[in-house]
Amino acid sequence: MAIEKADALIKLRAADNTRYLTNINPERQKVRQIAMKDILETYTKRAAVGDLRWVLTQYPCSAFAQEADMSLREYEDFIFSATFADQSNPVQCWRDVHDKQQHWVDWLAGKKNVVVRGPCVDLSLSIDGRTFINSDGKSNMPSGEIFRI
Question: Which one, of 3, 115, 106, lies nearest residue 51 by Cα?
């Protein structure tokens, strides 16, 4: 019902056990994924047209700190730094991220193929018909990526 009716969702990511699925049969996980398909589709469609606003943030917790091989204090500092919360003007920092990433979003618009070559990579892929999104701290936090829909 929340996915169908809510105007906005706030998601805080924190865990007390990052390995909770370790001994769960993958077939059971697949059944859950199939059962959630319609809900995820509704969520995605509503978010895409702006009927459902959302924000997701990583909350510093012991389990994630442990996964990062950090103390909780170190992990808190890492997350605060990644969100620019430790800067005097975090809003300007996110505007700068937006501007840098928008350059690449604009460059990718209308492209059909991407080729990446380097010492250990030779990758070619089609991006024909894809729309790229500037994830600049408005929904995911921390953020700072370009993704496609």
Answer: 3
